[in-house]
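hey all, quick one before standup. I had two proteins in the batch that finished overnight and I want to keep them in one place so we stop losing track of which output belongs to which input. First protein below, input sequence then structure tokens straight from the run.
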Amino acid sequence: MKKLKTFRSEVKDLGPFQLPAYSGIRWMMMPFRLEDVKRTITAEDWHEALQRMVALAPVQEGVGYLTIDEAEVEPGTTHRRPGIHVDGVGPTGGLGGWGGGGGGGWGTGGMVIVASHLGCRAWHGEFEARIGPNGDCSHMKSMLRDEDAIPLLGQRAYWLNESCVHEPLSLATRTKRQFVRLSLPSDAPWYEGYTRNPLGVEPTGPIHPARTEFMAYRP
């Protein structure tokens, strides 16, 4: 039997963060240049907020990947993909630089995230477990204690490493929720169906066929 690897799941609270007004944008992993937000992002209302997110990141140059997902979420449902998982891991699972060593996560830079409302929790610590295909960590449920979970509160910025284990939460009431994720530079695969940048910034890694089972979660 293949020996399980130990990996570290990390979360860091970066402090309060105010987002622009809700407008219904849905951009998924759109490439842009971290050091040139104004000339590589078309939505001017987002320039200031995105520049502040970049300033909080451990890497501030290169091609990053921007997700802005604004949606009206129904009661009893999650805004984002449900279930315990790790972001950025491909169909073969595993860890090690996003797209390398079996599917990987977002390099060593990780991601900076902000949401308008609480809708997710994460775990900080070391785990001996495998990361399943497309980041599935449902098999880790017995080792993730509720009392150890860190709620990712609304209107706060967080840094998550590439192997951060997290779980979206169901919302109690109908909510217009904003979720913003700045995925830091890597040469990992980028999937068809993600958002193309109309200003011409291209992903730096290979382009793979769409992962429709997850990208269609919220059309």
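OK second protein, same deal, sequence then tokens:
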Amino acid sequence: GAGVRFTGMLPPARLAAAYRESAFLAMPSSGEGFGLVYLEAMQMGKACLAAPGAAEEIVEDGVSGVIVDPADRPALVAALVRLFTDAGWRDALGMAGRRIVQARFTPAHLAARLGASLEQGGP
């Protein structure tokens, strides 16, 4: 059914099903680090709603999702409403996100970034 579900931890198969069944990912948390959950959602072709900060390394505002200050309630509500109601836009963001993951965030890309960082003595 429609609505928001808070599931807690899910086994991998159920997690994949949850992404398939979802319209988009909304995690406008200003306390997140890198945020692998954004990559999971984007790999599944889902648009992401995220907060400014570390998430912007992954989610590109207006390209693969929406960056919204969670303290700006009117902007947050407007972004959520648009993501729920504008399926064409939402799907375009999701497909762009999938392309971004494949181009920049595969395990091989992440391993190369880690290796380069270690060679340079850290971030």
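Flagging for whoever picks this up: The first helix runs from residue 12 to 21. The mean pLDDT is 90.
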